[in-house]
C-alpha cells in the first residue's frame, strides 16, 4: 500500500493576501488534476510555511501516527488541607416549611 503525501508550502506573510489566496485556489485545482490524470489518490495533505520543521521524524509521525495513545485519567485535585472551618447549622423545617 502506498501513501501519497502532498506537502503544500506557502511563503507565509512575505507575500500579499492576493497571492496567498491565489496559491490556495491553485492547490485544490492541482490536486484534482493529479488525482484524475495520474490516478493517484492523495491520502495525506500537509501545509507548511517553511521547510525548517520538515524533518524525517516529523514526517514519520505524520505518516504513522500512534493509534493507541495512553490517555491519563482526570486526577481529581485534593481538597484544601488543614482545618475546613466551622460546621454550618441548618434549621429543620416543619411540614409547612416553617422553621422551629
What brief labels describe this structure?
about 15% strand; repeat; ADF-H; actin-binding; about 30% helix; two-stranded parallel ribbon; ADF-H/Gelsolin-like_dom_sf; alpha+beta
Give an account of the 3D structure.
The protein is an alpha+beta fold. The chain has helices at about 15-35, 55-65; strands at about 5-10, 40-50. A two-stranded parallel ribbon has the order 1-2. The N and C termini lie far apart (about 80 Å). The mean pLDDT is about 80. It is found in: Cytoplasm, Cytoskeleton; Cytoplasm, Perinuclear region. Belongs to the actin-binding proteins ADF family. Twinfilin subfamily. Keywords: Actin-binding, Cytoplasm, Cytoskeleton, Repeat.
Topology:
Layout: E1 4-9, H1 17-37, E2 42-48, H2 56-63
Parallel strand pairs: 1-2
Cα(first) to Cα(last) distance is 80 Å
Order of strands in the sheet with most strands: 1-2
Unreliable runs? none
CA-based shape: elongated
Helical content band? 25-40%
Q: Classify the beta-strand content into a percent band.
A: 5-15%
| Helix-and-strand structural type | alpha+beta
The main sheet comes to: 2 strands, parallel
Count of DSSP H/I helices: 2
Q: How many β-strand stretches?
A: 2
Element pattern in H and E: EHEH
Radius of gyration: 30 Å
The averaged pLDDT comes out at 78
Region (Disordered): 74-100
Domain ADF-H: 1-64
Keywords: Actin-binding, Cytoplasm, Cytoskeleton, Repeat
Subcellular location: Cytoplasm, Cytoskeleton; Cytoplasm, Perinuclear region
Summarize it.
It comes from Ameca splendens. Residues 74-100 are annotated as: Disordered. With 100 residues, this protein is an alpha+beta fold.
Amino acid at each position: 500500500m502506498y501513501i501519497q503525501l502532498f506537502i503544500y508550502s506557502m511563503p507565509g506573510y512575505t507575500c500579499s493576501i492576493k497571492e496567498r489566496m491565489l496559491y490556495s485556489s491553485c492547490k485544490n485545482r492541482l490536486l484534482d488534476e493529479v488525482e484524475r490524470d495520474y490516478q493517484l489518490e492523495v491520502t495525506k495533505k500537509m501545509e507548511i510555511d517553511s521547510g525548517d520543521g520538515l524533518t524525517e521524524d516529523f514526517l514519520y509521525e505524520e505518516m504513522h501516527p500512534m493509534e493507541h495513545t495512553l490517555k491519563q485519567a482526570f486526577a481529581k485535585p485534593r481538597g484544601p488541607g488543614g482545618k475546613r472551618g466551622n460546621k454550618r447549622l441548618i434549621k429543620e423545617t416543619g411540614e409547612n416549611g416553617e422553621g422551629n
